[in-house]
Automatic annotation (TrEMBL):
Protein name: Extracellular globin
Residue intervals of the Globin domain: 22-168
Coiled coil region boundaries: none
UniProt cross-references to PROSITE patterns, sorted A to Z: GLOBIN
Keywords recorded for this protein, A-Z: Heme, Iron, Metal-binding, Oxygen transport, Transport
Gene3D superfamilies per UniProt: Globins
Organism: Owenia fusiformis (Polychaete worm)
One Pfam entry name: Globin
Keyword Magnesium: no
Stated family: Belongs to the globin family.
CDD domains for this protein: Mb-like
GO molecular function: heme binding; iron ion binding; oxygen binding; oxygen carrier activity
GO CC terms: extracellular region; hemoglobin complex
Length: 168
């Protein structure tokens, strides 16, 4: 009986620890709601500003990554090719968030995005950049989302990042 109790207690501790690190239903709802309020209320210029802020922060922390974007004029944040590319990236992120609650579709979306990045390994892409993107994204979102739920965003971003690395 004591062994059964110990086993049950251990499983409960593991479950509680795991639940704090996963993208729970409550986390998904919070992230989806906050993102929806931000992204649907933001016009094209606002979206560009958010995307530019994220990438400014990302490149400040990872300057070597800028070379990965030479084909889309990542050297010039005002160039139309670069602006369009950053908005496409954020729209891909939008797809991930909007499908967090539909596991099958979410897996298809992140799998497709993952495949697109696998093709860029020869250019120097490292899947760890997905993890490194979390901090600048979080800093930007925290600055523009009222009541930013950092724990939910952290948990759900981890799920997105793991999906984006699924084909590596």
């Amino acid at each position: 009986m004591v062994k059964l109790f110990i086993a049950f207690a251990f499983m409960a501790i593991v479950a509680v620890g795991y639940s704090k690190e996963c993208c729970s239903a409550e986390d998904k709802q919070s992230v989806s709601s906050q993102w929806h309020d931000l992204w649907t209320a933001t016009n094209g210029g606002g979206r560009v500003k958010i995307a530019t802020d994220v990438f400014t922060r990302f490149f400040a922390k990872n300057p070597e990554a800028r070379a990965l974007f030479k084909n889309v004029r990542g050297d010039d944040f005002n160039h139309p090719e670069w602006v369009a590319h950053t908005v496409r990236i954020m729209n891909g992120f939008d797809l991930c968030i909007n499908n967090l609650e539909d596991t099958k579709l979410f897996n298809q979306v992140v799998g497709h995005l993952s495949s697109q990045h696998v093709a860029r390994i020869a250019d120097g892409f490292d899947p760890n950049y997905f993890d490194l993107f979390k901090e600048p994204l979080g800093e930007t979102l925290e600055s523009v989302i009222s009541g930013f739920n950092a724990i939910a965003w952290d948990n759900c971003y981890n799920r997105i990042s793991e999906g984006l690395k699924s084909n590596f």
